[in-house]
Amino acid sequence: MTEVKKQPVVLSIAGFDPSGGAGVLADIKTFAAFGCYGLAAVTSLTFQNTKRVYGIMNQSAESVLEQLEPLFNDFEICAIKTGMLPNAEIIGAVAGFIRAHPVAHIVVDPVLKSTSGLELIDDQALGALLNDLFPLASLVTPNVVEAQRLSGADLKSRQQMERIAEAILKTGAGAVLITGGDSGSSLATDVLMDGQGTELFNEERIESNQTHGTGCTLASAIACLLARGRPLRESVPIAKRYVAQAIAAAPGLGEGNGPVNHFPPGFRFER
After folding, report:
1. Contact (Cβ atoms closer than 8 angstroms) between residue 104 and residue 129
2. Is residue 173 part of a domain?
């Protein structure tokens, strides 16, 4: 009898976006696109559409742990991707749970602000991210705006991006990917820094308002590739290519910053 190879199981710990563009719904769709089985624990319920976030109702740290415990009792989880962790209590609880239940790959997407500009975490939570969760991360994936808030410094050049990436590495994270798609310039420069050094990814910035949830999607794609055994430096360009195709194939839904197409017709993942 031929042995059936199990799907890699990937867990999202993030907020719920009812419009489906970001958060756990975007993560689950990305996991499926890469042939992984997706699990999710919801940290916050957001009330939003493509135009703005109208409100937030955070879960308790206890409720997040109560979601996680049965999942770890039943599934062999290959990778975790974290997204919106809205306060220090939840961040501390998630970090403690991960320390007690080690997983090979932890991708931390530090969601600090919504696309419409709403601040999603306070300074105490920011400190908890840096001190409690980043040291457990295989990879941290801030965009330029998030990197500036994490460091407290303006980020206007590649050299500054590298200095901030180095500072994040010093928290204990295994690697840092600062994405430049939100920098406002015509050229998007992403900086990847890990124990092997620094690698730059320079591409023409895609002019589109169909970019809701691209940060979630990129981090989730990388988590899937790591779960499938791909090395990080091979995973990043594959994930970037996927996001670019997802933007290009966006369905054009909503009146604001629309969602991408998580199953773009031009994308083919070779398992």
Report:
1. no
2. no
- CATH of residue 70's domain is 3.40.1190.20
Return the exposure string of 98-123: e unless at least 16 CB atoms fall within 10 Å of the residue's CB, then b.
beeeebebbbbbbbbebbeeeebbee
Token match 């976030």: residue? 53
As a whole number, mean pLDDT of residues 72-78 equals: 98
In a domain, 65, yes or no: yes
- Whether 69 contacts 62, CB under 8 Å: no
Kindly report the backbone phi and psi dihedral angles of residue 116, in degrees, each rounded to the nearest multiple of 5, phi listed first: -80, 0
Residue 221 exposure: Cα atoms within 13 Å on the Cβ side: 25
Number of domains in the chain: 1
Instruction: Give pTM, 2 decimals.
Output: 0.94
Query: Which has more pLDDT, 199 or 115?
Result: 199
**Structural domain contains residue 156:** no
pLDDT of residue 186: 66
Nearest Cα neighbor of 110 from 129, 94, 97, 91 is 129
pLDDT for position 151: 86
